[in-house]
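hiii so um. not sure if this is the right channel but i have a protein structure encoded as tokens and i wanna go backwards to a sequence. like what aa goes where. can anyone help
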């Protein structure tokens, strides 16, 4: 028997001109009784977290991916093996690996799309993996949480994935992270566009390009504040990056497995010259900013370089302000920017994904 979804807005709440929409997973016990989203314990916690982020719940549009209660509150009960999924086999698996949405529930996705396309909020907060799956075709909430992206279900509407309040009730350490995401959503709700800085990364083919970049950005000056980061491979420095501003960066590569002897530089002399320029920058008077600098510095010191003016460490500064939060570079990016971790743009073989 096919499933027929209720008419749009029959089981939603909030104004239809809201700037913020919140999308949850499905009904729980209390929601099933009143046929409205977020009225149980998780809904009460959601209201509290929104209030702490400066968002009034009654200003938001609230709905669920599925306006129904799954059996035993398990979203997997709505799933079938891929061979039985029909058109839903084109979507990512849902909940658990190998479990795909039963085709009879496609009307629920169409109902959700109609609601959101009608409201056209400036931002949708996807609460949990199922909402993220429906809106962004990915249920990997732990990887993409906090990053702004364009909805695949409703193109032209930006989405911010974060933890579901029911998950927060099970893992209280997620609460300040979700509130930080709500704070970002409140800022992003002022405009519909995804606004990001234009960034220019120099990947040099010649030593002269490195020299020109160093001179152009005046990174040997005492007044310069310079971000430094390395990538390692086989216990060696694969590449090292410098950024004197959010808009410009230089990456100096050293290891390239696709080239002779695994070296990026075609001659030993060129590699030595590149290392000398890197040493000049690191041993120069510019104030250096690291992320988990103790890790980077062990490799830099092993290379025979003695960096000077190592003034700041973003991981330690963040941890001193918010000790209850995670402190990886990807996490800091998810909190302080609207972009995903750069690691998500890499695939096996170190090939870069194309920007779609």
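sure thing!! here u go:
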């Amino acid at each position: 028997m096919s499933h027929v979804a209720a008419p749009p807005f029959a089981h939603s709440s909030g104004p239809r001109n809201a700037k913020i929409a919140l999308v949850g997973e499905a009904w729980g016990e209390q929601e099933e009784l009143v046929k409205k989203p977020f009225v149980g314990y998780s809904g009460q916690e959601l209201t509290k977290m929104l209030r702490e982020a400066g968002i009034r719940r009654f200003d938001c549009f609230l709905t669920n991916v599925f306006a129904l209660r799954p059996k035993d509150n398990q979203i997997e009960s709505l799933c079938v093996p891929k061979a039985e999924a029909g058109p839903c086999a084109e979507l990512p698996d849902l909940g658990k690996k190998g479990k795909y949405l039963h085709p009879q529930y496609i009307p629920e996705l169409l109902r959700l799309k109609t609601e959101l396309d009608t409201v056209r909020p400036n931002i949708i907060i996807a609460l949990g993996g199922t909402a993220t799956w429906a809106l962004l075709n990915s249920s990997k909430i732990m990887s993409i949480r906090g990053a702004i992206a364009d909805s695949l279900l409703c193109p032209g509407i930006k989405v911010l994935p974060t933890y579901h309040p029911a998950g927060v009730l099970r893992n209280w350490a997620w609460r300040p992270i979700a509130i930080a995401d709500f704070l970002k959503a409140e800022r992003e709700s002022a405009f519909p566009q995804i606004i990001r800085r234009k960034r220019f990364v120099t990947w040099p083919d010649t030593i002269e390009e490195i020299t020109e970049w160093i001179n152009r950005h005046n990174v040997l000056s005492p007044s310069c504040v310079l971000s430094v980061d390395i990538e390692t491979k086989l216990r060696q420095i694969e590449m090292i990056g410098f950024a004197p501003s959010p808009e410009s960066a230089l990456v100096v590569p050293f290891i390239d497995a696709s080239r002779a002897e695994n070296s990026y530089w075609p001659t030993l002399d060129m590699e030595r010259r590149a290392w000398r320029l890197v040493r000049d920058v690191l041993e120069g008077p510019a104030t250096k900013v690291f992320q988990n600098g103790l890790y980077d510095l062990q490799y830099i010191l092993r290379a025979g370089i003695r960096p000077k003016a190592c003034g700041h460490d973003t991981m330690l500064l963040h941890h001193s302000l918010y000790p209850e939060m995670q402190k990886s570079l990807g996490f800091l990016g998810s909190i302080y920017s609207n972009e995903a971790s750069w690691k998500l743009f890499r695939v096996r073989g170190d090939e870069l994904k194309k920007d779609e």
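oh and The domain at 20-188 is CATH 3.40.470.10 (Uracil-DNA Glycosylase, subunit E).
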